[in-house]
Amino acid sequence: MYTESMLNTTLGYIEKDGKYLMLHRTKKKNDINHEKWIGIGGKMETGESVLSCMQRECKEETGYDWHDPKLRAIITFNFQKKENDPLFSELMFLFTGHEISGQQKECDEGELVWIPKEEIANLPLWEGDHLFFEQLEKDQELFYMRLDYIGDRLIFASYNEKTILKKEGKEKNMNESQQFIQLIERLIECDPIEAIGLGGSRATNLADAHSDYDLYIYLNQDLPLAEREQVFEGLFQIIEYDNQFWEREDDGIFLDGIPIDILYRNIEDFDKALETTLLYHQAQNAYTTCLWNNLKNTKILFDRHGKLKKLQTKYNISYPIQLKENIIQRHRALLFDGLPNYADQLKKALLRNDMPAINHRAAAFAETYFDLLFALNETSHPGEKRMMNETQKLENVPEHFVEDLTSLFQHLFIDPNQAIKDLEQLKTQMKKLLNE
Questions:
Q1: CA gyration radius for the chain?
Q2: Which domains occur in the chain, in start order?
Q3: Longest dimension (CA), the chain
Q4: CA-CA distance, 224 to 191, in Å (whole number)?
Q5: Pairing of strands 88-97, 7-16
Q6: Alpha-carbon distance 308 to 195, whole Å?
Q7: Helix, strand, or coil here: 186?
Q8: Region for residue 171 given its phi and psi (left: phi exceeds 0; alpha: psi -120 to 50; beta: otherwise)
Q9: 295 in Cβ contact with 311 (< 8 Å)
Q10: 338: which residues sit within 8 A by CB, 6+ positions away?
């Protein structure tokens, strides 16, 4: 789940003699963690690395210098005070370790106490904390969790993208739009429709209260406008037909206020597009493997002759090495080495203070940069949303790329000289990675 205001934070548990250093949050006003026991940590500052943030927060809150914090988990924390309230989202980087020096000091946020591990479950914790403590005890590798709350009630939890808890509440309401159910029931009666797939956040358990529906209609022949009008009758506040800005689609808002994008694909043409990428290894300027990712993560709602499932099976393959090499070659030229290249074009725009050109070239640079990162890690591209968060999960990435990209975006329109330095740093670190 992602919002523009998502916080990046650290959370740390220092271990000593079978105990964790816990913080009983009692001192701050309007504290979402009030009266709960949590680890140490806090918000990342601009330009700060995750590790530096953890060590700084440890020093500020405890007085200790922490020498061996190890990243153990990345946790998405989603919170609504009440079901229809605004969403608060936080991306937490969870560390553990035991090597510290210095003297413990009084914390201005609460009481610091060394608690035996076996007693932690008896403390007033966030409900989901019990889940990640279980994994910390048995899991040696980095893991990912998502924890959704309404008030103090945990309504959804996932571990490495697999649902491990789902209760009545927001998730149920979001996924059971009566108009959506009626729409599917009507669509499956249309003979030109081979298959129907649900994509986007609603297919991958990442939906929030603002998520729309991404519905993919796979056709064996055209579905006429008159037939679509009959299918949609009485379901929408507003509907627009045959928008073709990207793919051909109808876009509407259900009577219950939830938006939906209905995209139409000829299933044979869709197969050919995937073949071009995955079998003939043709790289694009950006988003090269997005269709593949979309297919892999599509939740099939209807499949008249099993063709969509066959496509999922056909393309359930390892990342093609030749495609990876082609993307690297193309994107290295596009980003830095070609004549022209995005980096040089962006520098020129910055020196001219040409704001439309700065925006255009920065977007093109970022699209290609992220596409290259996914290819280097042999990972299909998840699409235009949450790219910074998704690339932080990758192993083979340039040093400090999050900090460098963040700095570039922050300085594009206010400090051209610093933005050019940021661009050079991105170039240096990416070339270093490519040459290793």
A1: 24
A2: 7-167 (3.90.79.10), 176-314 (3.30.460.10), 321-435 (1.20.120)
A3: 76
A4: 11
A5: parallel
A6: 6
A7: helix
A8: alpha
A9: yes
A10: none
Encoded tokens for 279:
């079998």
Spatial separation of the C-alpha atoms in residues 254 and 240, rounded to whole Å: 12
Which residue in 88, 69, 86, 66 sits closest to 77, CA to CA?
A: 88
Contact predicate 169/182, CB 8 Å: no
Residue where the block lists tokens 């159910």: 181
For the beta carbon of residue 339, count every other beta carbon within 10 angstroms.
Answer: 6
| Cα(283)–Cα(287) distance, integer angstroms | 9
Please give the single-letter amino acid code of residue 272. K
Residue 1 and residue 89 in contact, taking contact as beta carbons nearer than 8 Å:
yes
Among the listed residues 322, 318, 367, 317, the one whose alpha carbon sits nearest the alpha carbon of residue 342: 367
φ/ψ (deg, to 5) at 407: -65, -40
Task: List phi, psi (to 5°) of 308.
Answer: -70, -40
Helix (H/G/I), strand (E/B), else coil: 107: strand
Give residue 225's Cα distance to chain centre.
35
Segment 119-156, tens digit of pLDDT: 898 788 998 999 999 899 886 689 999 999 988 888 89
CA distance 435 to 429: 10
CA distance 255 to 235: 6
Beta bridge partners of 94: 11, 73
The angle subtended at Cα 397 by Cα 344 and Cα 49, nearest 5°, is: 95
Q: What end-to-end distance do the CA atoms of the chain give, in Å?
A: 34
The token pair that represents 59 in the structure block: 């020093």
Please confirm whether the linkage preceding 124 is cis (ω < 30° from 0). Answer: no
Query: For residue 358, what are the contacts with CB-CB under 8 A and spacing of at least 6?
Result: 346, 349, 350, 412, 413
Task: List per-residue pLDDT tens for the chain, 436 residues long.
Answer: 334 457 899 999 999 999 999 999 988 877 888 889 999 999 999 999 999 999 999 999 999 999 999 999 999 999 988 777 888 899 999 999 999 999 999 999 999 999 999 889 878 899 899 999 989 988 668 999 999 998 888 889 999 988 888 765 444 443 457 899 899 999 999 999 999 999 987 877 666 666 789 999 999 999 999 999 999 999 999 999 999 988 999 999 999 899 999 999 999 999 999 999 999 999 999 999 999 999 999 999 999 888 999 999 999 999 999 999 999 999 999 999 999 999 999 999 999 999 999 999 999 999 999 999 999 999 999 988 888 889 999 999 999 999 999 999 999 999 999 999 999 999 999 999 999 7
